[in-house]
Backbone:
């Protein structure tokens, strides 16, 4: 793992400095080194971590990736049957590849896999993919420079450590010698209080989580002026959330990056204090140094500027494979080029515009609709705080476009009149719903699949708007 040699270094340089904390549960760099080393004699080649977070997670993760070991990070929120199925598959792999390992807390060979990650899922066994040490080491080198991470930072990642965004933030902090803070459980109030009480300088989270924290902090008076960096990923930050973040943390640079657990960083952008944000609702920045991006159609032809297609990436940060569940769509290689099936286009300034996953594309009455574009238009309607768009089965159209909102405006006719001026006919939702809460995954990402299930099941968290 690319942070263990650095952990040894920081344990010598700053042994008593906080390495990882979650509430009152905290451990120093020397303490983390010693606790992880103590576990090595009983840590197998493939180990499993299934904890919500905290210092125990960090200790077991560090031990689980030492030398030639590989660690599988499981989501503790999975249903028991799903978790058991994943564990049985991992035991089978361990049995086939049992080897004798050393007991030194150090990084293993750079070309060897160190991590089993999993796609999110609620009913079937998640797909399992691997990452190599070299791919993360290169990501650390690039990300530390772009995101201005130093040993003096104090990073809060309020999401679960089983989520790739938070897990990476933990590893890069240990690599840089920076203090890392998690929450025993997610709460916007606890996150806002942690920023103030722990003198957090940097927060890493998905946009929906950032919005919840900033909104609570502004309403409660929690201080965010000590923040110098806010890192967002998972989806595009909307202008409303940007405004909240600016009010709460006026001195923070706001970083956004587009990537995937399988690809690492692809594109990024930064908004410095005082700079005016772009009004482009789908723009996710330019390719990072050493990363190439191109857009292809289904025949493999490279598409011209401004034409939507599948996003392909050529990058030294990509490293890994699918261990199981590969349907040829989730992660695909064509020579040196890779894709996770995301759709987008590049504009004349070489800025990538992300239109979502191919699986999110809604085909209604023969028209392709990108839900992110509809959601962006809805967020411009007065009173609408959040919007989620999905498709439900329809006997005439095949799929019927519907939207759910959190809004002070509860008259569907008024919302519809605003949308009519902003969107063409195929992109206008056919029905509107009010949300009691956002349909979020355990990682804090919006789930259109979850919304569709709520609508189909008549869930109390969503109701039709008249």
Residues:
């Amino acid at each position: 793992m690319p942070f263990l040699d650095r952990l040894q270094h920081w344990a010598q340089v700053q042994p008593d400095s906080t390495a990882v904390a979650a509430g009152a549960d905290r451990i120093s760099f020397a303490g983390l080194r010693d606790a992880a080393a103590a576990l090595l004699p009983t840590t197998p080649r493939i180990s499993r971590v299934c904890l919500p977070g905290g210092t125990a997670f960090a200790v077991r993760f560090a031990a689980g990736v030492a030398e030639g070991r590989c660690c599988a990070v499981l989501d503790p929120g999975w249903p028991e049957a799903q978790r058991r199925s994943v564990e049985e598959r991992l035991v089978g792999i361990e049995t086939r590849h049992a080897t004798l390992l050393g007991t030194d807390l150090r990084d293993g060979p750079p070309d060897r896999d160190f991590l089993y990650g999993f796609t999110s899922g609620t009913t079937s066994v998640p797909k399992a993919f691997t990452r190599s040490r070299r791919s993360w080491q290169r990501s650390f080198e690039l990300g530390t420079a772009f995101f201005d991470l130093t040993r003096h930072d104090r990073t809060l990642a309020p999401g679960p450590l089983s989520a790739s965004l938070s897990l990476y933030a933990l590893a890069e902090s240990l690599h840089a010698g920076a203090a890392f803070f998690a929450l025993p459980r997610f709460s916007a109030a606890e996150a806002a209080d942690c920023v103030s009480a722990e003198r957090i300088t940097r927060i890493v989270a998905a946009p929906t989580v950032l919005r919840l924290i900033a909104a609570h902090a502004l309403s409660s008076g929690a201080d965010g002026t000590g923040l110098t960096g806010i890192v967002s990923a998972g989806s595009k930050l909307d202008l409303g959330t940007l405004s909240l973040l600016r009010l709460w943390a006026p001195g923070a640079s706001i970083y956004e990056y587009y990537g995937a657990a399988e690809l690492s960083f692809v594109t990024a952008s930064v908004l410095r204090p005082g700079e005016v944000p772009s009004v482009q609702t789908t723009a996710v920045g330019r390719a990072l140094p050493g990363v190439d991006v191109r857009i292809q159609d289904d025949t493999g032809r490279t598409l011209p500027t401004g034409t939507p297609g599948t996003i392909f990436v050529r990058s030294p940060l990509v490293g890994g494979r699918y261990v199981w569940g590969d349907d040829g769509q989730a992660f695909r290689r064509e020579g040196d080029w890779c894709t996770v099936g995301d759709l987008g286009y590049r504009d004349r300034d070489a800025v990538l515009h992300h239109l979502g996953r191919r699986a999110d594309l809604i085909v209604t009455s023969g028209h392709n609709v990108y839900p992110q574009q509809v959601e962006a238009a809805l967020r411009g309607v007065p009173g609408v705080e959040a919007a989620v768009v999905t498709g439900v089965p329809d006997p005439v159209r095949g799929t019927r476009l519907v939207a759910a909102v959190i809004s002070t405006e509860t008259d569907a006719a008024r919302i519809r009149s605003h949308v009519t001026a902003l969107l063409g006919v195929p992109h206008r939702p056919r029905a509107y719903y009010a949300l009691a809460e956002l349909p979020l995954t355990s990682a804090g990402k919006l789930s259109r699949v979850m919304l569709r299930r709520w609508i189909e099941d008549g869930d109390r968290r969503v109701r039709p708007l008249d």
Summary: The mean pLDDT is 89.
